[in-house]
Predict the 3D structure of the following.
Amino acid sequence: MTKITSPDILIQSLTQKLTEFLPKKNITDPVMVGIHTGGVWVAKQLHDNLQISEPLASLNISFYRDDFSRIGVHPQVTPTTLPNEIENRHIILVDDVLQTGRTIRAAMNELFDYGRPASITLVCLLERDGRELPIRADIVGQQLTLSDDIQVKLTGPEPLAFDIKNTTLS
Amino acid sequence: MKPSSAILIKQGRLIDPANQLDAVKDIYIENGLIIAIDDHIDQAKNSAVQEIDAKGLIIMPGIIDLCARLREPGLEHKATIRSETIAASKAGITTLCCPPDTDPVIDEKSVVDLINHGVKHAGHSHIVCLGAMTSKLKGEHLSEMAALKAAGCVGISNASQPITNTLVLRRALEYARSHDLTVFIEPNEPYLSNHGCAHEGAVATRLGLPGIPDAAESTIIARDLELVAAIGARVHFGRLSSARSIALIQQAQQQGLKVSADVAIHQLFLTEMDLSTYNSHCHVLPPFRELRDRDILRQAVASGVVQAICSDHQPHEEDAKLHPFPATEPGISGLDTLLPLTFKLVTENILDWSQAVTALTSAPAKILGIDKGHLSIGACADLAIINPNKDWTLETTKMKSQGKNTPFLGWNFENQVVHTIISGQLIK
Amino acid sequence: MVNKNARATNPLLGQDHWNIQLDENGRLKHFLTIEGLGSEILTEILDTAENFTGVNNRTVKKVPLLRGKTITNLFFEASTRTRTTFELAAKRLSADVLNINISTSATSKGESLLDTLYNLQAMQTDMFVIRHQDSGAAHFAARHVAPHISVLNAGDGRHAHPTQAMLDLLTIRQNKGHDFSALRVAIVGDILHSRVARSQIHALNTLNTGEIRVVAPRTLLPANIEKLGVKVHYNLQQGIQDADVIIMLRLQKERMQGAMLPSELEYYQQYGLTSQTLKYAKPDAIVMHPGPINRGVEIESCVADGEQSVILDQVSNGIAVRMAIMSMTLGTSAQQTGDEK
């Protein structure tokens, strides 16, 4: 199995890639949005590292999930916090692990309920196989191919670590 | 009912409190009458005699039910004279007393005749009627009580309709007394009960059900007893529900007033707590009250303050109970459970056999002033044969009444009617 | 994910009839009464509602959670506000909404509640929101509808109005914090006929409220109300003395005719909340009212509109709370699987 790099190192790498990416795309004054809960942890560090002036925003996508009819709604103590205006803003959307793409789909739906952003850049700590929707990340910490029964989850916020589980064994 | 052939019941335990009898006997019935009771009666020579082996069984006088709504005339979609007298005859009940709140009301001779006609053609048990105390039960004008008595009414009553005008009540009591009629009262002060549907107490408060205070019953008893004391009328209070009422009745009896009382059998088992699932089968009037009330009612039957137990039979079609609780019709279909529930009180050591049989037979007969409820030689052969050791569970399919509205479904009983004999005829 | 509300193993709740509200996993299936629900579920409702308040403050006040579901508002009693907030809640969850007011139609023609339910059920309704004049109507409906349908009680007789109680709890929590044990709450007015008061009392007790008082003349108090866990006061000044929360109830005008009260004026003088009487409560006490308000009957205008009044917060919280309960109950048919990424 491929070795997973530690989250802290991956965040350093993401910081570097973003520092190069943003000027290249002419993105100034972006809004950084973390997706609950792992994405927010990652976004917080990136937000500090990149010294973005707009306060960190967060998305709680539980009302936009497409699996409601199967798993119901869960109470989330932390609601969505976005700046008053995201119309024509550049969004950096941050999540921990990109797998099926459904979370990102839900997040983008929710973002569009707040307004029409100028662009969305997707940043993921870990991009693994298993996509079910045509979604890809713009900036990725590490790419991995894992067998279907391996589940990766970010735990945190202090320290950040990957929790790897073999679902067939549990 | 056509005259029957002879029946010989062998070696049953005869419980006949009216004759202070509780012993194993043979009993011989012919032409509708009890001909002989003895330790051993031998009729082997006569093959026309039907013999019933009653070893281990109880023989008692047929039950006299002080209050059973037959729904005919007026509400035949709920039940009929035919359906309910058949149910009674399977349940050990040989005489039913029908209150006057039929439609039309039993306030004139023709209605009594109508019912008697129905009984003659479709009746499977004896029926006696109470006549209306006031015209149309409106509590305003006295009914023709003498004519009703002549037509066969055994007493008069305003059924569940209250008489709010005390002067009308006074005159009704006076007039009834003049004609030697017992007045049957279901005590209820309508302004206090105020369209309630549950006992005013903690449970009704929790469930948000409009309450009926127990004072709705006892204030009327107190008022009526004052009139009884002044007039000397013979009054029977039916379907009591509260401890306060019992205290008043007991006091009146101690003062020598001619006052009797009955209780509906379900009041001796259920309480307000049984409403907590909004079970519409527990919607009865008067409502189930507190555990303390139930226990005092039980004691009152045991001590004789309350003489009789009745079914307060009120059969309903299924739809009548398929509404939110307050919108359902009150009442329980009680014929099928009157005997097994009453004898459950024997099992629970609340009553002894003699008390239980008395409350179902000779006591109600005395209240109605009819010569029934005993197994004397020469008496009408109305009797019930009971298996006291038969475990069974109440299910709707086992109910003979057309009304299946009962909160006792799923209850276990250990006494079951094996045979009922009415006027010497074995009910098939 | 472990279901923290699983209560199937709790013997006290095992066969309890109130838990017709809970499915076999202990999750909310119907919402009929506060009774029988634990503090975990109430807190879950409040937390979820807190989230939905965010949605209600956005430009696009809508989330796709209940897309494709049909919610039927079945109102047998006239109501504008409650029906409107249920309707808005459903629409903001993207459900289709059917409003049926039956106070003057089917039942007067003889159609029973059951027939009405069965007919609407045949139209593939997923949820009934029911208001009915008879206590127990919502339980009755829940017992008779098809298993996949949820029933929400929008007020049944004098019995319960649990969504109102939940929005009141949310309003109290927003103003007074999460610890209810330090709070003294006074409920003032017609407790006898009030389903709101009954649900509030259960809800406040479930969250361990320090002291709950009811304030009314004896004619407006139900029998044995103390057994619900409240202290009875006949005097307003004593009843709201040092209270943190004052809940005023609406006084129905028809109570005057039932000889329950001598006159409106005397009621106002004895039990009306005015700027003068409000001084008996704590200086930071909040004033609540489930609406609609009778100004000058139970509350003085300057109190209803004053700084301590949170009456309009209650109204907006009503939408969020109903969104929370609708999404929780309609989500219970779902099986618990892992969090999907």
